[in-house]
Amino acid sequence: MTELSPDVPYEYGAIAPPGSLLFTAGACPLDVAGVVVAPGDHVAQAERALDNLVAALARYGADPEHLVRTTVYVVGDREDLVAVWEVVRARLAPHRPPSTLLGVSVLGYPDQLVEIDGIAALPSEPSTRSASQSSVS
């Protein structure tokens, strides 16, 4: 399983109400040290952002098939959006949650080209939560 960087200024997800929905923060293409991977490479950044999204889902007891919505943000032109979308579509297949694909001018980290957030319907009460994990009522 991919490790998530503990050195980020946000939570990876929040559950509201308990046991039903998980709202993830935007999954960025960060390595475990919090460094953006693959500057200039949309496809590699999409792959790492998806790795981090899957890791965030797992942290709260969900899998990619529990996603009920995603939003994909891409810095670049239409071809870059299509390339990133192909990575997302292939990685989530055969599951096809409703998604929004957006071209944006800038994202939060230097050299960041991709960010992906999701909403998941949890299968049941998550079995593991740590004190650092958020619940929103």
Key features of this structure:
137 residues, alpha/beta, 60s Ribosomal Protein L30, Chain: A, 24% helix
Describe the overall structure.
- With 137 residues, the protein is an alpha/beta fold.
- It has 2 helices and 6 strands, in the order E-E-H-E-H-E-E-E.
- Helix 1 (42-59) packs parallel to helix 2 (78-92).
Secondary-structure blueprint of this entry?
Layout: E1 13-15, E2 21-24, H1 42-59, E3 67-75, H2 78-92, E4 99-104, E5 114-121, E6 134-135
Parallel strand pairs: 1-6, 3-4
Antiparallel strand pairs: 1-2, 2-5, 3-5
Give the name of the CATH superfamily.
RutC-like
Low-pLDDT parts are: 127-137
Task: Summarize model confidence as the mean pLDDT.
Answer: 88
Shape: globular
Helix content: 10-25%
Portion in strands: 15-25%
Question: Which class in CATH terms?
Answer: Alpha Beta
Q: Order of strands side by side in the largest beta sheet?
A: 4-3-5-2-1-6
Please sum up the structure shown.
This protein has 137 residues and is an alpha/beta fold.
